[in-house]
Prior knowledge:
globular, 570 residues, alpha+beta, 17 helices, five-stranded mixed sheet
Amino acid sequence: RLLSPLHGLKMLRQFCRIASKQTRQRIGNKYAFSSSVNNESSSWNSKLMIGGITTASLGTAAYIVNTRTNDNDLLDIQQSSIDNNKKEGKLMSTVIKPGIEPYALTTKHTKNHATKEEVDSITDISKYMDSYPIIPLSDVRDHYSPDVGDGSVWVTWKGGVYDVTQFMDHHPGGSTRIEMVGGNDLSGYWKIYTLHFREHIQELLQKYRIGNLTAEDRKTIEAESALNNHYITDPPRDPNVTHADTITDDLIIASLHPYNMEPRDLKVLSDNFYTPNELFWVRNHNAVPLIEEDEYLLEISGNNVKSIELTLSDLKTKFKKYEIPCTIQCAGNRQEDYNTSDNPLYVAPHWHNTAIGNAVWGGCKLRDVLKYAGLDVDGMSLGTKEYNDLNWVSFLGYDEDETGVQYGGMIPIEKAIDSWGDCLLVYEMNHTELPRDHGYPIRLIAPGHAGCRQVKWVKTIELLDRPSELDSGSKLDRHFAPNICFDKLRNEGHLENKEEEDEMAKAPVIQTLPVQSIICDWINENDEEITIRGVAWAGGGKAIARVDVSCNGGDTFKGAKIITPIKTTW
């Protein structure tokens, strides 16, 4: 099955496996690996020497097996696929260059990007004229807030009228962002938030349609629709990138506002043990705050600590500096694997494989700062001191949306005070000043935990007995059973089962992530040997025990050679 260049990624993933081990000390770092595979006639033998992260890409399997297929042949196959099926053709059937995500080299947008023609086809008002009533513009304007009238919120788009009240609490960008456009048209807002121009999002909106506008009313409300760009404080961006789901030579930009990007080339991971800052993935939820060094203040409060404020200078001079090598991965990395036509993914930003990076982070230990605020961290670690009203440490950032809602995240108190936990408040990244996109002047690094918990631009730290209502990931990042899907989250009559409602409410928020690996690169040696490289990582304090690879459909596996230039850390 692997001989065909049209097969590969999903099958290869079945035949690559990794194992992790639990240790007490600092563990869990990203490892690089290399391997060789010998080819005798048309079959593969077991002569493997391999090591690294493994997200096998579609072309990896095809190119490894069919070593005599040249680049021109693959280009012909890809063009045929694109011609036969436009939508599927946005994704290449195989990869012609090691390390590049599965898009043709000339592709400028990901498969999630909907063309104007696709959007117009979905929203064509003529398809809805016979099924929905005409709603006066005055009625639309009366439904602008959940606190007014009957509490429903309506919006318009392309001449359609939509009651989005039920969706508000499940909007990935927060309910307040929908309130901004209540009683108005979406066109001015979506000029900034271009990630909504995805086919499945346009189709989702139609589920909330309740009527249509007259042509005159549509013209009027669209002319009034406008939103000031909240992102003018962001660092300079590529002026050629004007839309979400854009692919450049080096980056995949899933969202421009807020800015979310990952490196396009998987070899960024395997060629650099420490990911270069400019190619390190970025996940922003709001505009990047503009903070002057001498104006920065960190507020600490809550249970069993004194309320104090610390400046950036305080954090640099009053506490010992530590440098910790640590891999950070977004909780949604590789979510694009689960985005299919029959089960679309609605939560931004649609990561592919490279929302993961490794860096040396420099700063002071969180436990030292909490100790300075009066918390007996040593007694807690030794078990001689117990606080009955202390379970969580909550972090809020200086970043906030247009309505003032801040981004927040939490970690368990056990992680924060653990002397081996290496939680840092960092001001350096790869031995340079922390870049603004990565949290300047201060961000939390909680090694082994998901990136969404490692809050950037930290403004406040609060010690709590129960999870904070301000935790931004409390609804988005949870461990659900397979029976819970997005339609049920939207709560449109699907949650009639009380047991499912309880299950959703009690589902634990994601903290750590499972073991995984990614194949990043390969080299064909005269059609006789294939050298494969990649990286492997495990969250939650687990080291990589081994990486196994199979070339015969999983009948047998061979262990990889694991390479790391430093003592295993995070």
